[in-house]
């Protein structure tokens, strides 16, 4: 069953809202402190787990598999959609503040770092583009609004940088929120399909 990327982005946003409404709580791995309820404080992998748990109940026909290995590699792709695979999707979180609202000055690297060691959205694009893990490939970013570091500006910077490295479709987007966390209370899910580029441009 063919799935349009726009439909997936919209359904993932709905799944995020549904997961958040259950008021899940995360715990700091360093201090053991329990964060305020909501999906916002959760680590990216756990948040994706919560979203997909909701998504498979509403769209069981989509056949979603998490963290599948790339061919001939120990690295994993966040999500494979379809059986046989139709889409390979990498997902990144943009969260500029901590549970208490204090800015995280290192968070921007999760989206924009050009260094593979940082496993950013930007480097995930290149990794996906070089792989034949699935016929279609996409990068998704979900993020939370912040007046000091507007999500729209971060996403626009990502698009500018990504298009110097890979072919990128136009943006799909869906709003999230209102969410239960007082800091991570609104945001968006964004998605782009990776498109072919001329030989030798990667």
Q: How would the blueprint of this fold be written?
A:
Elements: H1 5-21, H2 44-58, E1 64-69, E2 76-81, E3 87-94, H3 109-112, H4 121-129, E4 136-144, H5 151-162, E5 167-168, E6 172-176, E7 187-195
Parallel strand pairs: 3-4
Antiparallel strand pairs: 1-2, 2-3, 4-7, 5-7, 6-7
Helix pairs in contact: 1-2
How would you describe what is shown here?
The protein is α+β, with helices and mostly antiparallel strands and 202 residues long. It is built from five helices and seven strands, in the order ααβββααβαβββ. Strands 1, 2, 3, 4, 5, 6 and 7 form a seven-stranded mixed sheet that branches. Helix 1 packs across helix 2. The two termini are 31 Å apart. 36% of the residues are buried. The mean pLDDT is 94.
Tally of structural domains: 1
Shape: globular
DSSP helical segment count: 5
Major β-sheet annotation: 7 strands, mixed
């Amino acid at each position: 069953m063919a799935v349009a990327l726009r439909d997936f982005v919209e359904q993932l946003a709905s799944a995020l809202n549904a997961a958040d409404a259950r008021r899940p709580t995360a715990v700091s791995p360093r201090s053991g402190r329990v964060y305020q309820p909501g999906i916002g404080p959760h680590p990216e992998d756990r948040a994706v787990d919560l979203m997909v748990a909701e998504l498979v109940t509403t769209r069981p026909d989509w056949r979603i598999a998490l963290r599948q290995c790339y061919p001939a590699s120990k690295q994993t792709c966040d999500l494979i959609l379809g059986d046989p695979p139709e889409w390979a999707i990498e997902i990144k979180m943009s969260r500029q503040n901590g549970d208490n609202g204090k800015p995280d000055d290192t968070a921007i690297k999760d989206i924009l770092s050009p260094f593979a060691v940082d496993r950013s959205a930007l480097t995930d694009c290149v990794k996906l583009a070089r792989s034949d893990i699935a016929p279609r490939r996409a990068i998704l970013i979900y993020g939370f609004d912040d007046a000091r570091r507007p999500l729209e500006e971060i996403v626009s910077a990502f698009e500018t940088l990504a298009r110097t490295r890979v072919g990128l479709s136009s943006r799909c987007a869906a709003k999230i929120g209102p969410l239960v966390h007082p800091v991570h209370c609104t945001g968006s899910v964004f998605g782009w399909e990776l498109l072919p580029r001329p030989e030798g441009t990667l």
